[in-house]
Amino acid sequence: MAAAMGALIKGKKFDQRYDSAGKVTCSWGKAVPTAAVTIALPSAPPTYKDFPVVEVPELTALGVEAQSGGTEIAVGERSLYNQAFVVIAPQFRLTVDQTSEERRDDDLREAAVALTTWLMS
């Protein structure tokens, strides 16, 4: 199970498992939650190409497309969510993703809208 989870989370394999009360950590030493923002050329291969397109009025007004999705890894009563929000503009592709023990759909969307608005102004 640990090896399968390692492949799901950022493509890194688990060498060891670290457990402590109230905390989930990965073998490469990053505590959860983690967040990342990636800005790429629109021609770069998409990381999350299977995510459904979502309608966000603020982004539609800017003439860009958005995708949102994620995965849930559940072990017993605990869950780990890997979520992403992707904005596809003519000039760039912006990805905001997060791994957390809580779903944060609204936070990811708001961050992506704010960054896209800033980049396009």
TrEMBL record:
Species name: Acrocarpospora pleiomorpha
Official protein name in the record: Uncharacterized protein
Biological classification of the source: Bacteria, Bacillati, Actinomycetota, Actinomycetes, Streptosporangiales
Domain of life according to the entry: Bacteria
